[in-house]
Amino acid sequence: MKPVDFLSSSTFRFILSYMALFAGSVLLLLGFIYWSTISFLSHQTDLSIKNEITWLSGIYRDHGLDGLVLTINERSLRHLNEEEYYSVVSPDSRLLAGNLPESFIPLLAKAGWKSIEFKSPDVANRIIHVRAKSIQLTGGEFLVVGRDTRQLVVSHQLIVPALLWGLMIMIILAILGGVVMSRSVLRHIERINLTVREIMAGDLTRRIPTRGSSDDFDQLACNLNDMLDEIEHLMEGIRHISNSVAHDLRTPLTRLRNQLEELRIKIGESSPHLQHVENSIQCADQLLGTFSALLRIARIEAGRQKPVMKIVELPLLLDDAKELYEAVAEDKHISITTNSSVPVSVLADRDLLFQAITNLLDNAIKYTQANGEIHLTTTYNGQCAEVRVADNGPGIPVQEREKVLHRFYRLEKSRSGKGNGLGLSLVAAVVKMHHGTLLLSDNNPGLKATMTFDAFTGL
């Protein structure tokens, strides 16, 4: 199983989602700050214009048009800060005073707010943006007061890039933080996954390490370890009971079978009870075979049966299995063929591997109908060696293929047929002990059992 990539982890996706939400919130906040700043500056400009109009209107009221023209000419000549603009337009659209261009007289001779743009007479290539308000005086003249909005433009040019850079820096820092946090979380998760994989491989004594920080991961590890302790205790109890029953019953069953053999000799072949005695011996043999298989699986799974690892040539092993079962297959008119043209070897316990192959072959013969075919094949892809036993029998439903590898599980729910449900369990235990894989698949029709091992290359 591959370690989780932090980019595809739920932690990183959660952090990205939070980052998107946070970025949206920051964007709204920065947008509000920008809107508030520009609105404040615009309001200050408008307020300045209104106050100036109020003051000039008072001069017009107290000193008449001449006083107003004189005041505006003085203020226009001073050109204060090059930001203040004035005009007085007569009712017949003549410019009486001010520093706004005459070309805008048609626009100025109308009451209301105006936006005026023109080239600066002093600075080349500079466009002046003026926000102005025009009011009509009691004599029919129009008074216009404007302010250069350069401050608004400069503020906009400063604020918008600053907000964008701030947003970009925030996103970059959020992504870096997400990567760091995801890697930290995934390190804890990977430790748990590593322990779980070792437990799934058969080492029930493994436990998830803790850091002693009493954080959420330590609490999760402690709870999982407590659960694993309980599972190990229950599993050991079940194994102990089944192994003890198998071991304790094997001796009296062996003694019973021997007594039945002696009884068969005593009554002779002419006895009418001979068939009953032979049936009893067959039942005893079946029970002994079941208990022997059960004990062998238990020894393999517990690691008490140490494998004798040798270089095993798979084509020769398949030929031996075919030779052993060929007579049984011929009785059912079933043909067994081998395809072992590829020379491939594995480092394995020959007896256990032979037992696994013969178990698969025995099952294939048992469930294949008369005139059926069984194919034994070995393949090699440069790294792995495969042993395949394929038949054209009824096969195993997809939903049952994992279950048949468990002890005593049988497709025949009535359990009236031959077998004890341990054959495939033994095969699975042998394959697992050799660090291989067992795959049951459809042969269309029939079943295809494939065992995969690391090939021996001699390196």
Tell me about this structure.
This protein is of the alpha+beta class. It has 3 domains: 10-154, Beta-Lactamase; 216-302, Signal transduction histidine kinase, dimerisation/phosphotransfer (DHp) domain (Helix Hairpins); 309-454, Histidine kinase-like ATPase, C-terminal domain (Heat Shock Protein 90), CATH 3.30.565.10. 55% of the residues lie in helices and 17% in strands. It contains 8 helices and 12 strands. The strands form 3 sheets. Strands 2-1-5-4-3 form a 5-stranded antiparallel β-sheet. A 5-stranded mixed β-sheet has the order 7-9-10-12-11. A two-stranded antiparallel ribbon has the order 6-8. Helix 6 (314-331) packs parallel to helix 7. The longest helix is centred in the N-terminal third of the chain and has 69 residues, at 10-78. It is rod-shaped. 21% of the residues are buried. The model has no long low-confidence stretch (mean pLDDT 81).
Name the features.
5-stranded mixed β-sheet; 12 strands; 459 residues; 8 helices; 3 domains; Heat Shock Protein 90; Helix Hairpins; 17% strand; alpha+beta
The unreliable regions are: none
Give the strand order, joined by hyphens, for the main sheet: 2-1-5-4-3
Question: For the record, what is the CATH homologous superfamily label of the largest domain?
Answer: Histidine kinase-like ATPase, C-terminal domain
Q: Mind telling me which CATH architecture of the largest domain this is?
A: 2-Layer Sandwich
Secondary structure: elements and pairs:
Blueprint (H helix, E strand, L loop, with lengths): L9 H69 L5 E6 L5 E4 L6 H4 L3 E8 L7 E10 L5 E7 L1 H51 L15 H52 L6 H29 L6 E5 H18 L3 E5 L5 E5 H18 L5 E8 L3 E8 L31 H11 L3 E6 L4 E8 L5
Helix pairs in contact: 1-3, 4-5, 5-8, 6-7, 7-8
